[in-house]
Amino acid sequence: MSKPIIELMNISKSYDGSEALKNINLYVRRNEFLTLLGPSGCGKTTTLRIIGGFEPPSSGEVFFEGKDITSIPPFKRKVNTVFQKYALFPHLSVAENIAFGLNIKKIDKEIIQSKVRDILSLVNLPGFEKRSIHSLSGGQQQRIAIARALVNEPEVLLLDEPLGALDLKLRKEMQIELKNIQQKLGITFIYVTHDQEEALTMSDTVVVMSNGTIQQIGSPVDIYNEPKNSFVADFIGESNIVSGIMIKDYLVHFAGKEFDCVDKGFSDNQEVDVVVRPEDIKLVKEDDGMLKGKVVSVIFKGVHYEMMVSCNDIKWMIHSTLMEAVGTKVGIIIQPNDIHIMRKVIDR
């Protein structure tokens, strides 16, 4: 396990008396692709700006390789930032845009030319040195913005929703491209997005945020399969979230029936939230089900059908490659491993 390169300790940030961040504690490992994920206004961009030095925290400290950098300005930090709007210079060529930071450092021109060629090859745009920024597509401009940041050899690259302006197909292609670049260079990426698929696709670690607080930190698999609360479960993918009673370890009551589960550590008869992913529910013949219901709607989603099944005053969202017609009476089976128990969050 690599050592942390960045640590945030007790970071809070207020704007005109309103708390944007509330006592955030977070560390980022060297060579890690870490994503800050959450809805608009959750504090993820504020966190990124504090790491980059663009915003001072109201309280708390930022450490880089164990050294307090809280009061160090952005240009003295070993980080570079790629913004959603790219911020390329329209009057400069591709090469001049990429070399801008190197020229400020007064690096030898031949070395600059070599670095520009190398970085253009890395972002799959070889031979684009003389091209005008106006002649580039949105995806190409995004690659140039990344190249300009990377050519300065930062130890950490901050990316603030850099794919947000791209169309869906190009955005998916660039997700793979960005991950490949990060793995080739072996540097730390800290990425901000509100797109759950983007976070799950690219990240080593996902930090889910809401209302200025961290809700959960974990691998994409852990975040998806083992959400810690109903906010995470609802925000990451689609979920069925119902109220239940944890009768005892490994036994939970919901939807009018007792179910075996794999969770423990709750008080007997404790009120809980129960999460079941739509793809984890199996439809069977009505008499073969643990629960019985009726299909009330069907939507074709391309790779699967999304069906809503009404059962004991609960509407279950179910994803399946096999369709049951509206009005069909069906049975539902939910296996113990597919039932996730969470403590109830007040006023979630």
Automatic annotation (TrEMBL):
Coiled coil: none annotated. It holds the Pfam family ABC_tran. Part of the ABC transporter complex PotABCD involved in spermidine/putrescine import. Responsible for energy coupling to the transport system. SUPFAM superfamilies: MOP-like (SSF50331), P-loop containing nucleoside triphosphate hydrolases (SSF52540). It catalyses: ATP + H2O + polyamine-[polyamine-binding protein]Side 1 = ADP + phosphate + polyamineSide 2 + [polyamine-binding protein]Side 1. It is an enzyme of class 7 (translocase). Its EC number is 7.6.2.11. One of its GO terms (cellular component) is ATP-binding cassette (ABC) transporter complex. Belongs to the ABC transporter superfamily. Spermidine/putrescine importer (TC 3.A.1.11.1) family. Keywords: ATP-binding, Cell membrane, Membrane, Nucleotide-binding, Translocase, Transport. The lineage of its organism: Bacteria, Bacillati, Bacillota, Clostridia, Peptostreptococcales. It comes from the Bacteria. NCBIfam families: MMSYN1_0197, potA. The complex is composed of two ATP-binding proteins (PotA), two transmembrane proteins (PotB and PotC) and a solute-binding protein (PotD). This is Spermidine/putrescine import ATP-binding protein PotA. GO terms for molecular function: ABC-type putrescine transporter activity; ATP binding; ATP hydrolysis activity. Residues 6-236 form the ABC transporter domain.
